[in-house]
Design a protein that fits this description.
The structure holds two protein chains of two kinds.
Chain A (H helix, E strand, L loop, with lengths): L4 H4 L5 H10 L1 E5 L5 H11 L3 E5 L24 H12 L4 E5 L8 H6 L3 E4 L4 H14 L3 E7 L2 E7 L7 H4 L10 H4 L5 H18 L8 E6 L4 E6 L4 H9 L2 H4 L3 H4 L2 E2 L10 E5 L8 E3 L3 E3 L17 E5 L5 H11 L5 E4 L3 H11 L7 E3 L1
Chain B lengths: L4 E9 L15 E2 L2 E2 H9 L3 E7 L12 E3 L7 H12 L4 E6 L7 H9 L7 E6 L2 E10 L3 H9 L5 H7 L3 E5 L14 H5 L3 E7 L1 H7 L3 E6 L4 H11 L9 E4 L2 E2 L10 E5 L6
The chains are: A alpha/beta, B alpha/beta.
């Protein structure tokens, strides 16, 4: 019995198609909720070379949906654990693990080595970076994104089809991700499986890929909606003629982050909570200033440029954006807290109980 | 049928010359059905008998109505009303013009519910604008009609002033759109259309629903967007694209009245 018998039996695939899969090179950006099912199915399908890039470590809250990982893996790098698991599933293929964050500096070198990119990231900024690099290198990418109970899938820049910027020309800040809003655990399984399906269709050149189309799915209503997107040559031309560094910040390199683990003293430190006022848990303290991210620019006068600030939010995403805003406004001593509000609250309670008065509203 | 009122006859006035329209208003199409058929389809659910006052040859094949001749041809709506009331076998009569294709059963029931014995006529009124061709008239009006027609005083407003007991009914704001009457070809182009709007992700959280049907005219996508932002102010700070019939739109596109979707970007992965 051959591992790929059930593929070979398909008239659209056959031995020839399976050969094509074994020669294909696919890069999966992000090894989280979407990345896990994508990687599992591509590995099982016998894609010859799979790259995985992600600098994130496994945390316990990932395990509700990131089905490649186990409780024993907590604290380890996702791409390393993914590589181990996928090797067990299919030892015949090559799996390249990159413990890196995708940046303007490394993206071109990475993308050059692959035929197809799969966007499984959880930040808007990285989606634009992937989009623009794919335009520059003329590579297709399979987009997937999720929000609570809903998901989107599309194939961009495939045979001159529309790109992500033809749909949403400019990034918006403050777009919530899963760790901030929650997500139904099975949803990335569905959306990731659709992404893997599109990837296989493109490599095998069968069926009609979602090129120039955005497919939306709502798990609560089983409603789906497909919208055609036209290629906007003006936007694409602008991307082709601008240096990537001009369009994108080097996200991973520029934001100063700090972890509670390394934070030994709260002396002279003030916290800025950039969450919306309704978000739980509510942290009230003399040490904490509440300014929602989208109001930050207008309320800089409440802050002092001589102070040391640590910015936090629900997950550490918005706080990074806030630190960028503060740095651009001349605040030199500010860092983004890697942990979210809940962890911070527990930490303050246990470690600094005497130093800070806190109230916890539920 | 229990909902029908056998004591009321519907009289539809379709004998007009439609000088501003340039063609017969009754036979204009709205959603692939003629105006007159829209109105008949609504009236037949409320009253058993429908009289169509018309001398037009092209109205001969209209179904579900008894066609009655204008007793005073070319004397306008007052003469049409006189003819209808003359042929009617009931004291109370629901009178409708043929240029209000959006009228609903609710409107007809609303008008009928406002009638009391002490009135000779009740007519629809919006913002002090009187609509004498949408209302209820009793046979008791016949003598006043006849007197004025013979004196060649044909204005409806004049006629209403002569009637001793006329009630003006204010139409609630929610129903006013039904009474938009069509006088010019431009009016046809601006007829309200019903649009089904689907909301996704964060947008559905702002609107509080995943879909709704709204009534709008054939306006631009930009106007529709502005309308939605007025209705749901939080949309102003949201990022989304609008698709129509599965195609992404730009602001200057015109809505065609089928399916609209508001699509936000998703960040999660």
């Amino acid at each position: 019995m051959n591992r790929y018998d059930r593929h070979i039996a398909l008239e659209n695939v056959g031995i020839e198609g399976q050969c094509t899969l074994s020669k294909a090179r696919i890069l999966v950006v992000g090894a989280g909720g979407l990345g896990c099912p994508v990687l599992q199915y591509l590995t099982a399908a016998g894609i010859g070379t799979i790259g995985i890039i992600d600098d994130d470590r496994i945390s316990i809250s990932n395990l509700q949906r990131q089905v490649l990982y186990t409780s024993e893996n907590i604290g380890n790098y996702k791409v390393i654990e993914a590589q181990k698991q996928l090797k067990l599933l299919n030892p015949d293929i090559s799996i390249n693990a990159y413990v890196e964050c995708l940046t303007v500096t490394n993206i071109i070198d990475h993308f050059k080595k692959y035929d197809l990119i799969i966007d499984c990231t959880d930040t808007i900024a990285t989606r634009y970076l992937i989009n623009d690099a794919c335009i520059l290198l003329d590579k297709p990418f399979v987009y997937g994104a999720i929000y609570k109970f809903e998901g989107q899938v599309a194939v961009f820049n495939y045979k001159q089809s529309a790109t992500y910027r033809c749909l949403f020309p400019e990034p918006v800040i403050n777009q919530p991700n899963c760790s901030e809003t929650g997500v139904l655990g099975v949803l990335p399984g569905i959306i990731g499986s659709l992404q893997a399906t599109e990837a296989l269709k493109i490599i095998l050149n069968i069926g009609t890929p979602l090129a120039g189309k955005l497919y939306s799915y709502d798990s609560l209503t089983n409603r789906s909606h497909t919208v055609s997107i036209s290629r906007n040559d003006q936007i694409i031309q602008k991307i082709k003629t601008s240096p990537l560094t001009e369009l994108h910040n080097n996200r991973c390199d520029t934001v100063n982050e700090v972890s509670l683990v390394t934070l030994h003293s709260l002396n002279n430190i003030h916290f800025i909570d950039v969450r919306e006022s309704h978000e739980q848990p509510c942290i009230q303290s003399k040490k904490v200033i509440n300014i929602p991210l989208n109001a930050l620019l207008n309320r800089l006068y409440e802050l002092s440029r001589d102070q040391t600030y640590i910015v936090f939010c629900q997950s550490g995403m918005r706080s990074k954006q806030a630190v960028k805003i503060l740095e651009n406004a001349g605040f030199s001593d500010c860092k983004s807290l890697q942990e979210g509000a809940a962890t911070l609250l527990d930490h303050l309670h246990t470690v600094y109980e005497d130093a800070v008065t806190l109230s916890r509203k539920r | 049928m229990k909902n029908k009122d056998t004591h009321i006859t519907t009289i539809i006035l379709a004998g007009g010359k439609s000088t501003r329209m340039g063609e017969d208003k009754a036979m204009l199409l709205y959603n692939d059905t003629t105006f007159i058929d829209h109105i008949i389809g609504t009236a037949i659910q409320v009253t058993d008998t429908i009289l169509l006052v018309s001398n037009h040859i092209q109205h001969q094949n209209i179904k579900n109505v008894s066609i009655v001749k204008d007793l005073y041809p070319n004397k306008g709506p007052l003469a049409g009303l006189y003819s209808g009331l003359s042929y009617s076998k009931t004291t109370l009569n629901l009178v409708l013009s043929c240029d209000i294709p959006l009228i609903t059963i609710d409107m007809l029931k609303f008008l009928i519910s406002n009638y009391t014995n002490e009135h000779q006529a009740i007519i629809a009124t919006t913002n002090d604008y009187k609509m004498p061709l949408i209302g209820l008239y009793t046979k008791g009006c016949l003598s006043t009609c006849k007197k004025l027609i013979e004196k060649n005083h044909l204005k409806m407003m004049h006629f209403l002033n002569e009637l001793p007991a006329v009630k003006h009914i204010n139409i609630p704001d929610t129903m006013k759109d039904q009474l938009i009457n069509i006088n010019t070809p431009q009016d046809v182009a601006h007829l309200p259309i019903s649009i089904k709007i689907y909301y996704f992700g964060q947008i559905a959280e702002i609107t509080g629903s995943t879909e709704e049907t709204i009534i709008r005219t054939k306006e631009s996508i930009a106007n529709l967007k502005q309308h939605l932002i007025t209705k749901y102010p939080a949309l102003n700070n949201a990022s989304f694209r609008i698709a129509q019939n599965q195609q992404l739109t730009i602001d200057s596109d015109t809505i065609t009245g089928e399916e609209i979707a508001l699509l936000p970007p998703f960040a999660g992965g």
